[in-house]
Structure formats: structure tokens, C-alpha cells
Amino acid sequence: MAPSRTRFLGASKSMARVRVRSPSLRSKPTSKSTQADQSIEFLANVTENFGHGDHDGFGNGGNKVMVVVDSTLEAKAALEWTLSHTVQNQDTIVLLHVTKPSKQGPECNVKVDLRAHDLLHSMKNMCQMRRPGVHVSVSIHKGKEKGPIIVEEAKRQRVSLLVLGQRKRSIMWRLLKRWAGKRKRRGGVVEYCIQNASCMTIAVRKKKKFGGYLITTKRHKNFWLLA
Predict the structure, then answer these.
(1) Confidence band for 24, pLDDT divided at 50, 70 and 90
(2) Residue 2 resides in a domain
(3) Can you give the pTM of this predicted structure?
(4) In angstroms, rounded to a whole number, what is the distance separating the alpha carbons of residues 221 and 205?
(5) Which of 4, 10, 16, 212 has its CA 20 to 30 A from that of 171?
(6) Quick check: is 15 in a domain?
(7) Where is each UspA domain found (predicted)?
(8) Which range, of 3-7, 150-154, 192-196, averages the lowest pLDDT?
(9) 211-217: which pairs have CB atoms within 8 A and are 24 or more residues apart?
(10) Alpha carbons 49 and 45: distance in angstroms, whole number
(11) Residue 154 has pLDDT above 70, yes or no
């Protein structure tokens, strides 16, 4: 069956759209009808948590979706998922980039800022080429605590949906972080945003082996969506 945009009955037209086509990888094999039921149930649980963004920024009634971006493959996958699964014409994508102040002086900070602007300019151009009917804006912030900055900026801009890329951490990495005593509170930036953002927040990880994406929200962990 060709992919199609699913609408949840009774949900507001201003809610962001998410296509769902498969159950969790942890689930036992199911029939197509059962998979469809699970997909609809997942969509219902997700859409009931969507807030209403500020739809007046560009004089239209579209959604506003914020994507946290950087130079990693995980961030690029999150942006690709957003472009292909959530936004429609007249929606707005806000590309948010957060950098830490450099300890090496003003000159290094200038270089970091230039790289950030180049990155955002490149991603903005890509969004406009892929989805010319979607508005794109950029936002750059600097600070040591990335999670709170993201949460506050999403709230300030009144976005409907916040999307972040999620990296797969190996068991060895987790053991080393625990041994070194550097494990971040509440599982890191992604988990902090999921638990504390006032809007619906989704973490996206591209599944290379099986295809599709693993989606994590406050209510669902690693829910497998086929691309």
C-alpha cells in the first residue's frame, strides 16, 4: 500500500501530521489489520498531546515545527523525517542550533558562530528545495545547558511540535559514562526535552538495518515507523 497522510478524526486541523505504519520492534509479528489498529492507536496517543503553535507568524494557519539541528547524522535524519512525515504547505519549520561558548577566546567563538550560520543556511536551502511551500526560519542560541535552552525557545516560539535526533548509545559507552560519573541528569538533552517541553516532543533515530525510524515520545519508546 502506498504511504498516505493519516488524519485523526476529531483532532484539530492545526495539529501536526505524523504518518504511522508499523508496530514496535519489540512487538510480536502481527497481521496487517492488527498493525493498522496499533498505528491508529499510536497516532491517537500522539495527536492528543499536540499543542497549538503560534500560527500568526507568517499570516497563515499552518503548524510551527521546531527541529534541533547540528552537523551530526542524527540531526540530519530528524530534519529529513520532519520534511517527509509532518509538514505540509503553509507550515513553518524553525531550525534551532545551540552552541556552547568556547573557552579558547573570542576568535574561536567567532569561528564557531560562522560555522553555525553556514550550517543553518545550508539546511534552510535544503528545506526550501525539498518543500518550497513550507516557511523556514532559523534560530541560534549559545549556552552551557542545551536542554533548558531548547525547551525555553520552543515555548517562546509557541511551536506545535519539537523534533530532535537521537543517537544510539552502546552498552560500553553507557558503562564508561557511569564509571566516569559524567552521565547527564535524566538521560541527556533528548530525554530532558521530552520530559520538560510544553509541546509535543519527538526523538527520531534512523533505523539503518531494517529501514524506517525509531520514534520516542513521553508515552512511547522506540516505536518503529517504516519510511
Answers:
(1) very low
(2) no
(3) 0.73
(4) 11
(5) 212
(6) no
(7) 64-205
(8) 3-7
(9) 212/22, 213/77, 213/81, 214/25, 214/166, 216/166, 216/190, 217/46, 217/49
(10) 7
(11) yes
User: Which domain CATH number covers 216?
Assistant: 3.40.50.620
Lowest mean pLDDT segment, chosen from 109-113, 115-119, 131-135, 178-182: 178-182
Enter the C-alpha cell of residue 170: 552502546
Residues 205, 216: Cα–Cα separation, whole Å? 9
The DSSP secondary structure of the chain, one letter per residue, reads: --------TTS-TTSPP-------TTSPP--HHHHHHHHHHHHHHHHTT-----TTTTTS---EEEEE--SSHHHHHHHHHHHHHT--TT-EEEEEEEEPPPTT-HHHHHHHHHHHHHHHHHHHHHHHHH-TTSEEEEEEEE-S-HHHHHHHHHHHTT-SEEEEE-PPPPHHHHHHHHHHT-PPGGGSHHHHHHHH-SSEEEEEEE-TTT-SEEEE-SS-SSEEE--
- Amino acid 86 reads T
Domain count, the chain: 1
On whether residue 27 sits in a domain, the answer given is no
Range of the domain at 171: 32-225
